């Protein structure tokens, strides 16, 4: 068996200090005018790509993510299953359920 590697962090994480006076309130986005063409909205994605996960982990922790993710607690997984039923069915898409507008004539 292989021996376990010790987890080492090269330096402690230092968070920048901000005072309440430095924080600016968020400005509301202007409402689109009626005559302007609406830009297509970005698609909502539930899962991040491996590259996005690695970039976020590097920015927060200063090291790469572990190869095997930690298992979620059972109650968290049940909550996710109720919020997103069928999320684990990656091969099923909405295109599989397209209905033809013109039904076939009866024989």
Automatic annotation (TrEMBL):
<protein>
    <recommendedName>
        <fullName>DUF1639 domain-containing protein</fullName>
    </recommendedName>
</protein>
<feature type="region of interest" description="Disordered">
    <location>
        <begin position="1"/>
        <end position="39"/>
    </location>
</feature>
<feature type="compositionally biased region" description="Polar residues">
    <location>
        <begin position="1"/>
        <end position="22"/>
    </location>
</feature>
<dbReference type="Pfam" id="PF07797">
    <property type="entry name" value="DUF1639"/>
</dbReference>
<dbReference type="InterPro" id="IPR012438">
    <property type="entry name" value="DUF1639"/>
</dbReference>
